[in-house]
Amino acid sequence: MLFSSSVFLFIFLVTVTGLYFLLPRRMWRVRNLLLFLVSVAFYWAGERRLVLLMLASVLANWLLGLWAGAARRRGGGVRAAVAVTALVNVGVLFVFKYLSFLSRELSAWIPSLSPVDIALPLGISFYTFQAMSYVFDVARGEVEAEKNPLNVGLYIAFFPQLIAGPIIKYSTFAPQLRERRTTGEGFARGTRRFAVGFCKKVLLANTLGLVVKEAFDAAAPGASFAILGAVCYLLQIYYDFSGYSDMAIGLARVFGFDFPENFIYPYIARGVTEFWRRWHISLSSWFRDYVYIPLGGNRLGKRRQILNLLAVWLLTGIWHGANWTYMVWGLIFFVLLTVEKLTGLDKKLPAWLAHIYTVAAFCLAQVVFRADSLSAAAAYLAAMAGANGLTDPRAGLYLRENWAFLLAGAIFCAPVVQRLQEKLRGTRLEGAADVAAQLALFALTVVSVTYIVKGTYNPFIYSNF
Hints:
Layout: H1 6-22, H2 28-47, H3 51-74, H4 78-109, H5 124-140, H6 149-157, H7 159-162, H8 170-179, H9 184-217, H10 223-254, H11 272-275, H12 281-292, H13 302-320, H14 324-343, H15 345-348, H16 351-370, H17 374-384, H18 393-412, H19 416-424, H20 430-453
Helix pairs in contact: 1-2, 2-6, 3-4, 3-5, 3-6, 4-5, 5-6, 9-10, 9-18, 9-20, 10-16, 10-17, 10-18, 12-13, 13-14, 14-16, 16-17
């Protein structure tokens, strides 16, 4: 069940919100139980029997957290708890996410070996990483082991962030289990944030996604059409994923939870290093805290730092999916980040040139990310370079139909609205500008709802991860 679906908007969300606010604030335990049960129902609606896998993850990591907490109090055995936690969780990821890929690759070399086909559970990479972070933080002494399995269950299964994050640390989530406040102002802020993400997803990501699909599926696209498809994908994946993060943060706010930001205008970055401080921040932070720093980070010299970066970006690529394209994608960013670390290229370039280089590098890397295979990625990159000719009439056709969405996408991936609000703050126009912004958001939300009701193209890229 996607957030941008009629069933979620008009049935699930309305019912859950109504039930939640019927319960008095002092009954926070009952409210938590309600949120856990509806989160399980939310996952069951999309995955049916695989909800048992998610519940097994909750139970296993709750028990592992108790073990890690007890080992820490005794002063020994913490490493064993951490090792078993990693083995169990990575083992589950391997079976459900990578075993099918590995069996297909091996069957190409060993004809007698039949490939297996295992269904990929929705959001497994996100909730597994979140579950592991809880146990790791208990082992480090950053949080206490949670005795109540319901609290761990709600932390892992909470429906706003269950499918696609952001990946939240338990130290952020736990205090809000008991002390969060649901206010009218918070409800309004959460609703507005959800509406912003909803419009980004439906109006921009979905619309541009149609152009992307046509371009990447086209036979021998000319350079103009291939480049248009790559640019549209650059915008689609940003508005798709950041829009979903906005909706998750907004929904959490409605129920009194404050989640950290996951995207901070990555396309204004001046360098790949800065880019990854702005894009999918919760995943970057996870690998920094639980892989890069434990391996030594940048404390053991340049050579070791480069090896640590290689490990992080290979794992980041593998995390995204079972395909050679994701591994190559991770290696591309390893190379770019290593060059920046060793040469300071991002700081030496003029700001405008660093910005162009960053966006162009990400655009080309995302072609590899989007492609079904390395050969398909190579063919598409060759098409962008003119292998199939420079012009393509389809580029003009799709550009005429979608120029307004492309222009809006290019404008709003920068903090244009925020900077305008800052300039108007304290002036006589501030109030009028706020009212105009609210009316515009309301109108765009209504239009977005009509798109959904009509059943328009509505994929979600990160549901595959």
